[in-house]
Known about the structure:
By secondary structure, this protein is an all-alpha fold. The chain has 4 helices and no strands. It is elongated, with a radius of gyration of 43 Å.
Amino acid sequence: MPEPQPRRRLDQPRTPGRLRVSLDREAFGRLAERLARFLGTGTFLFWQTLMVVLWISLNLAAVSLRWDPYPFILLNLAFSTQAAYAAPLILLAQNRQDDRDRVALEEDRARAAQTKADTEYLARELAALRLAVGEVVTRDYLRGELERVFRERRRQVRDDVPS
C-alpha cells in the first residue's frame, strides 16, 4: 500500500523539482549571434553547397546507397528544419543588436547633450573674458599713459624752474 504524501502547505513556496533546467540567456544569445553570423558567411554556403551536390550525386548515381530518391524529400526536410531554426536565431541576433544599438544611441545622446552644455558654458566664459579683457589695461595703453604723464611732469618742471 502506498504511503500517503504529506499535505503541502499553500503558504510556503514549493521546493524545486528534480528536473530543473537553468538557461543562461546571455550565453544562449551569444551562441545564437555566433551561429547567425556563421550562417551568413561564404564558408557556410560553400559547405552547404558541397553537401547538397554530394547528396544529390550519391542519390542519383549510387544505386545501392539511395536513401533519398529523386524528389529528395529528406533533403527538403533537412532544409526546412535548418530554416526553422535559422530564422529565429537570426531574429534573436538582430534583437540583441538592436538592444546594443539603442544603448549606444542613448549614450551618444547623453554625450552630445553634455558636449552641448559644455560648449555653451565655454562660450559664456569666453564672452565674459572678452568683456573683462576690454576693461583691463593693456601694455600699449599703459605705456602711452606713462609717456603722457612724464611729458606733463617735464613740462611742469620746466615751467616751475625760474629763468
